[in-house]
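Take a look at this chain, tokens included, and explain the fold to me:
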Amino acid sequence: METLEQTGLCFPQLLNSSCRKPIRPHFETMLIYILLSFISLLTAALNLLVIISISHFKQLHTPTNLLLLSLAVSDFFVGLLMFFQIILINGCWFLGDLICTLYSVLEYILTSASVGTMVLISVDRYVAICHPLHYSTKITVRGAELCTCLCWVCSALYNSLIMKDNLKEPGRYNSCIGQCVIVIDHVAGLVDLFLTFIGPVTVIVILYMRVFVVAVSQARAMRSHIAVGTIQSSVKVAKKSELKAAGTLGVVIVVFLLCLCPYYCVTLTGQDTMLNASSAAFVICLFYFNSCLNPLIYTFFYPWFRKSVRLIVTLQILKPDSYKLNIL
């Protein structure tokens, strides 16, 4: 029996059909286990706080925050899905072909929904900064709800379509027992790469470059402008809040791109087969870690998030009419 265990097979009893575990130092394996488990729990917990905050407090029901809510929902589920990634660390999948396929499809859907939400956030900030007079009429709560719903529905339909072969016959591309492999057609893969990375990133960068230029010019104008009367001063405050929101969400988008670019660059260049186990684990960890960073950014930049977290942790949200509390 010892000789079977020493072969490094996922299923030692199946000598001829079992997959082999990748060779990795024990210390490195344990470090990745601990790191991914910590990130997974932290990601789920922090994003759950964002979801509760925006959902519960009526004052936070704005178009921008609804987009942040959509992003938090996708990040929350990414945190939960990381537990499946932890199972795959040793190179063996023990949950069956159907769960493998469903996990992969859900992972693709969440990624697409996150990217789509980032595009919507960029459009929201573009209209708020570049066309402030039309923002309240063009960007509404109902419109934000509709756009986020369409984003999720389109993401689910699109990813189900490109992975239909895997859904029809789960495990069809596995070469051994204990493997979790999803294969997408070459043409579909190129289309997916454009629709979920190249296209959205291009739109995000162009919109935020425009936002940055206008924001800088507005900031200079406000510094040199002498406010006269209450109306001008209130407009000034509104502009400052919009600029601050644009800056905060700009940080979210930059971090998003920095975390996802290594993963997609490897896919784009086709160098994924040249990565060793450690490099692949790092790229995957970075990909997932982005979902944990967003709530941390809100903590540093949004006072309303810090205040709502205190109310949630102290269970004050259980009081009657707590949803009417002043958060901003």
Notes: The first helix runs from residue 2 to 6.
